[in-house]
């Protein structure tokens, strides 16, 4: 067995949220093998984030690509097991709730390698979402559970996971944002390129399977978002995820004005847009968190959230799928003062996670 860490990732949010852990390994000279499953492979969801976040190229890329849930997860499991047998890491880290996380968690636990789950304990309590099943299974396979908040720790305790395996670290999304927010404000030209002014547009992302794979639901969400923006006289910038783009074409849906579909954005441009938007509408987990941290009001286009902290502090409301509720939620949130607290930690989560798996490093206080 080597003394290093293997970090498994596969999608856009994992690259962003594991960047602080990978950087902490580099700064502390801890060997770190990067295993990319290839779940995301388009440059706009993958390589642009490695470039912009200054990450090393993956040591392994399994190039699994897109497929049904079972096939994709199964191919990842086979590939990850082979790499772990070759590398023999002391610890495997996975982050979040994608199919890459599930495959990584199963592979590590079958080989009896120590498994750490970053962003453990989130629950939407909606078992129709593939992400909910992935995160529950990964949590129950993990040896160490890095819960971002006290609420996520409580969720794990309620499922019988012993307290001794849980560490509340904060969310690495804060580390990434704190490191890049100023840089984005200084260097990004995205507002000029899109022809929008600070605080005079809405930003929207919509890509979750349960929303965009259902034509009626997708159409209702687009309609609600467009009417809400029209009422306030602003454009909606919608950087479109390839899943949603594919569904729009397949269903023959027109995107109503004033929604403007644009390419998926690079990280710095995207956080500049989040920071500058009057309001964010989203079904993304990471975007709900980032809007809350940046002080931009958020309307979540779902009927559940695994980020209830954003709602409790007053940064977010659930609008469900009904256009009238979306319009009312936007009216409510647009008036809100954005002086809520950031519930996701102090920006040292990556360092804390590394110290937990490499206890010889100097310990930061939780
Ligand atoms: C996955 C995660 C979701 C996460 C999202 C982050 C699961 C079950 N879902 O959803 O939780 O919010 O990533 O963005 O793991 N495609 C491309 N290029 C790519 C990748 C995908 O064009 O690089 C297209 C393909 O048509 C593919 C579709 O997007 O069929 C869906 O990709 P997939 O990885 O299955 O799920 P996501 O919707 O990306
Ligand atoms: N993001 C980005 N460009 C975009 C849309 C999102 O850089 O066009 C970033 C965003 O800053 C956040 C992450 O992608 O950190 C969220 O990923 P996504 O919404 O794909 O997944 P989820 O968080 O829902 O799992």
Verbal overview:
Helix 1 crosses helix 16, helix 4 runs parallel beside helix 5 and helix 10 packs parallel to helix 15 (323-334). This protein folds into 2 domains: 5-171 and 345-364, Glycogen Phosphorylase B (Rossmann fold); 182-334, 3-Layer(aba) Sandwich (Rossmann fold). It has helices at 12-27, 47-52, 69-87, 99-110, 130-141, 150-158, 172-187, 190-194, 209-212, 215-232, 242-251, 267-276, 285-294, 308-312, 323-334, 349-357, and strands spanning 5-9, 32-36, 60-61, 91-95, 114-118, 144-147, 166-168, 201-205, 235-239, 259-262, 279-282, 298-300, 316-318. It contains 16 helices and 13 strands. The model has no long low-confidence stretch (mean pLDDT 96). The protein is globular, with a radius of gyration of 20 Å. A 7-stranded parallel beta sheet has the order 3-2-1-4-5-6-7, with helices on both faces. The chain has 366 residues and is of the alpha/beta class. It starts with a strand and ends in a 9-residue tail after the last helix. The structure holds uridine-diphosphate-N-acetylglucosamine and uridine-5'-diphosphate (UDP). Residues 12-13, 16, 205, 239, 264-265, 267, 270-271, 284-287, 290 line the site of uridine-5'-diphosphate. Uridine-5'-diphosphate binds next to helix 1, helix 12 and helix 13.
């Amino acid at each position: 067995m080597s003394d290093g860490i293997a970090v498994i990732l596969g999608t856009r949010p994992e690259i962003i949220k594991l960047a602080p852990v990978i950087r902490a390994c580099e700064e502390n000279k801890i060997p770190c093998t990067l295993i990319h499953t290839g779940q995301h492979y388009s440059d706009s969801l993958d390589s642009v984030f490695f470039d912009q976040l200054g990450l090393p190229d993956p040591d392994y890329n399994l190039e699994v690509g897109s497929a049904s849930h079972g096939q994709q997860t199964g191919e990842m499991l086979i590939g990850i097991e082979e790499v772990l047998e070759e590398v023999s890491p002391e610890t495997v880290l996975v982050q979040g709730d994608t199919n890459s996380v599930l495959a990584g968690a199963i592979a590590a636990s079958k080989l009896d390698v120590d498994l750490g789950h970053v962003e453990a304990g989130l629950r939407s309590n909606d078992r129709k979402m593939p992400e909910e099943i992935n995160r529950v299974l990964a949590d129950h396979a993990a040896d160490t559970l890095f819960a971002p908040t006290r609420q996520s720790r409580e969720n794990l305790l309620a499922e019988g996971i012993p307290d001794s395996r849980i560490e509340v670290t904060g969310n690495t999304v804060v580390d990434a944002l704190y490191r890049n927010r100023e840089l984005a404000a200084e260097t990004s030209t995205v507002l000029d390129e899109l022809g929008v002014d600070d605080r005079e547009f809405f930003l929207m992302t919509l890509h979750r399977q349960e929303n965009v794979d259902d034509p009626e639901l997708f159409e209702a969400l687009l309609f609600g978002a467009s009417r809400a923006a029209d009422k306030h006289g602003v454009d909606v910038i919608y950087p479109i995820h390839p899943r949603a783009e594919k569904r729009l074409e397949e269903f023959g849906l027109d995107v109503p004005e004033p929604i403007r579909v644009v390419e998926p954005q690079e990280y710095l441009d995207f956080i500049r847009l989040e920071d500058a938007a009057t309001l964010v509408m989203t079904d993304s987990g990471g975007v709900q968190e980032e809007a809350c941290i940046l002080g931009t009001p958020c309307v979540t286009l779902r009927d559940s959230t695994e980020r209830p902290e954003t709602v409790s502090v007053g940064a977010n409301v659930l609008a469900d799928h009904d256009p009238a509720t979306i319009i009312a939620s936007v009216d409510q949130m647009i008036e809100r003062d954005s002086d809520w607290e950031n519930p996701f930690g102090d920006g040292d989560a990556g360092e804390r996670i590394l110290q937990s798996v490499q206890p010889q490093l100097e310990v930061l206080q939780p």
